[in-house]
Amino acid sequence: MRHLITTDDLSVEEIEALYEEAESYLRKPPPKLLQNRLVITLFFENSTRTRSSFEIAAKRLGADVVHLDVAKSSTKKGETLYDTAANLDAMGPDAIIVRHAQSGTPYQLSRHVGCAIFNAGDGAHAHPSQALLDLFTMRRHFGRDLRGRKIAIVGDIRNSRVANSNMRLLPRFGLEMLLVAPPHFLPDSDLPATTDLREALEWADIVMSLRTQTERHAHPIYASLKDYAKDYCITKDRVGERDILLLHPGPVHRNIDIDDAMLADPRCKVLEQVKNGVAVRMAALKRLILANG
Ligand code: NCD
Question: In 44-90, where do the E strands start and end?
Fold first, then answer.
């Protein structure tokens, strides 16, 4: 059984093939390759983009999609997550797409079910489909060969599953990375890091801004996000005329992560990422579901 728990579940060759497929879906409507297939979405954490993106991707390929309303589900009545999953599995889905505040939940579920598990974000651990769409967006801009391109990831890296997945995925494609954050937002990592955004902007071809993951802070770290923004907001003043690609997984804290002017700037590809996300998720759903027979 194939699952997508982390980006390491796919080889470089498989990711390349996935991107070919995603490109074709952007050119023309996809064939209904997942007709009569069933996809269940199970989100224990809030989501705007990721859930709808997976649902649209599955529907575009002809699959039936059922969303389990977690707030009304039996886990609220004391059923364990595994029993919930086993019961969903008994209904014969081809894939369950799961998001959970606790790292490791998708992996644990994958050991209890007979269908493909797609990790749509688990705690601060991983968000593989987001990293895959981020890399796809970079390739669409710079071309297939990204070796030597420089990306600065800016923000609450320590608590970000998006950063975590990108930190594993992007070096496999030859990108150079720089982590940019105040000390308490920097992770334990061997990757180069700086607290100085100005230095990072001088260096980078690509800037990936992140939201401050306040929901994962045990104690408030900044009195106000405005204090963070003073040093780390990606503003038009700071970026100037530099030829950079600006990414953000959303949701954006406007004028904290990125200012109004940069959000409206053509160098900012946030909505491009959202569009590409549907195509990449289509390719991933198709590949794993059909591989599982
Ligand atoms: C991210 C997430 O949920 O991890 N958003 C997303 O999936 N597009 C990032 C975030 O919440 O800041």
Answer: 64-68
